[in-house]
Design goal:
Elements: E1 2-5, E2 16-19, E3 29-38, H1 41-48, E4 65-73, E5 85-88, E6 91-92, H2 98-101, E7 112-113, E8 125-129, E9 133-135, H3 142-146, H4 149-162, E10 170-174, H5 179-191, E11 194-199, H6 202-210, E12 215-218, H7 224-230, E13 237-242, H8 246-255, E14 256-264, H9 277-282, E15 286-289, H10 295-307, E16 314-319, H11 323-332, E17 338-342
Parallel strand pairs: 10-11, 10-13, 11-12, 13-14, 14-15, 16-17
Antiparallel strand pairs: 1-2, 3-4, 3-8, 3-17, 4-5, 5-9, 6-7
Helix pairs in contact: 4-5, 4-10, 7-8
The chain binds NADP nicotinamide-adenine-dinucleotide phosphate (NAP) and zinc ion.
Zinc ion binds near residues 97, 100 and 110.
Length: about 350
């Protein structure tokens, strides 16, 4: 099979197209003919180096977000049949560590991640456990399906599982250039919440308005906290979903109503945030960290998105051999929506 991998770290030029042996599905696994693999921030970070996930090894085939067709079944009983169109949950929890056994599999101690610390979807073929595949309906093409796992899984974990966002509440989310933000706006609108989006870019805010965002705040030219309060009759928002990190963390706290929830899941602007403790404890806010989805939450996210007709926003699609171009596109910051590779013909 053809695959794209990197043997070292560096710029997009380290991505090379190679011929590798076809993988064989083991017990409980399926062989997937990959039709679409969305490019993720983690692919860029681990290409630049160092590898971030425990167990990352070179050479590495990236690609966490995969949709394709079942080509063959490994030994054992299977829910899947050859020809099924599926998307993949990239988080392979072990099922046997203390966290998994206690039902807290989102915090699995031996997590393996497709395209993160095991071979991913920048390839014509890959093997995954059948239990981590989810059927995709005929109305959803492979490119759209490949846009769901990481961004919508993260937004689901943040807004629904951790944040408990309810209909009628007001959510604030930062960064209109982020795939996680697009997913958060889609999910929050479908949940019946009112959505405030903040950005440094007027053009990106206009795209967010097209997706249904109710209030748009350009925080380069206006006061973020003041605007958030103005949009809520002075009360403050119920939930902030902050994946930007230190640059906006303090503002996120001050934009909340008393007793509000701040869900955080990213470190785009750094790994250490500073904030005013008395303000945080006097206002009774709750800080909620959110990581990846466990299998049951992921399945619920897929079911919700498919039943509500949520379709990820496409940016551009490239043949597999143009993976370096796809990385440049995402790195440029010019993309709005998913950048996707097409290892096979997309349906
Ligand atoms: N915990 C997990 O399992 C998990 C999973 C997925 C993602 N994440 C994290 O979620 C975050 C979002 O990822 P992503 O790939 O969707 O988006 P991203 O590319 O990291 O987000 C870029 C956007 O963040 C905003 N931003 C960047 N620097 C900023 C600054 N100094 N001040 C204000 N805003 C700034 C900008 O929005 P504007 O241009 O609109 O201003 C920019 O377009 C990342 O930190 C990622 O690691 C975590
Ligand atoms: Zn585990």
């Amino acid at each position: 099979m053809r695959a794209v991998r990197h043997r070292g770290h560096g710029g997009p030029e380290v991505l090379e197209t190679v011929s590798l042996p076809d993988p064989e599905p083991g017990p409980g696994e399926v062989l997937i003919a990959v039709r679409a693999a969305a490019v993720n921030r983690l692919d860029l970070l681990q290409r630049r180096g160092p590898g971030l996930l425990p167990g990352f090894a070179l050479p590495h085939v990236p690609g966490m977000d995969v949709a394709g067709d079942v080509r063959a079944l490994g030994p054992g009983g299977h829910e899947r049949r050859v020809g099924d169109r599926v998307l993949i949950n990239p988080s392979l929890t072990c099922g046997s560590c203390p966290q998994c056994r206690a039902g807290r599999d989102a915090w699995c101690a031996s997590l393996r991640v497709v395209g993160g610390n095991r071979p991913g979807g920048y390839a014509e073929l890959m093997v995954v456990p059948a239990a981590r595949t989810h059927p995709i309906p005929a109305h959803l093409d492979h490119v759209a399906a490949a846009g769901l796992p990481t961004a919508y899984g993260m937004a689901w974990q943040g807004l629904v599982v951790r944040g408990g966002l309810r209909a009628g509440e007001t959510l604030m989310v930062h960064g209109a250039g982020s795939g996680v933000t697009i997913a958060a706006v889609h999910l929050a609108r479908a949940l019946g919440a009112r959505v405030v989006v903040t950005s440094t870019s007027r053009a990106r805010l206009d795209r967010m308005a097209e997706l249904g965002a109710d209030v748009l705040i350009d925080h380069r030219s206006s006061d973020l906290v003041g605007q958030a309060r103005a949009a809520t009759g002075g009360a403050g928002v119920d939930v902030v979903f902050d994946h930007v990190g230190p640059a906006l963390f303090q503002a996120s706290l001050h934009a909340l109503r008393p007793g509000g929830r701040l869900v955080f899941c990213g470190d785009t602007t750094g790994s250490e945030a500073k904030f005013n403790l008395p303000h945080a404890f006097h206002s009774g806010v709750t800080l909620l960290g959110a990581g990846s989805c466990g299998p049951a939450d992921f399945a619920a996210m897929v079911e919700f998105c498919l039943s509500r007709g949520l379709v990820p926003v496409p940016d551009t699609a490239y043949p597999l051999a143009d993976a370096a171009e796809a990385h440049r596109r995402l790195e440029s910051g010019a993309a709005f929506g998913k950048v996707t590779l097409l290892p096979g013909s997309a349906s």
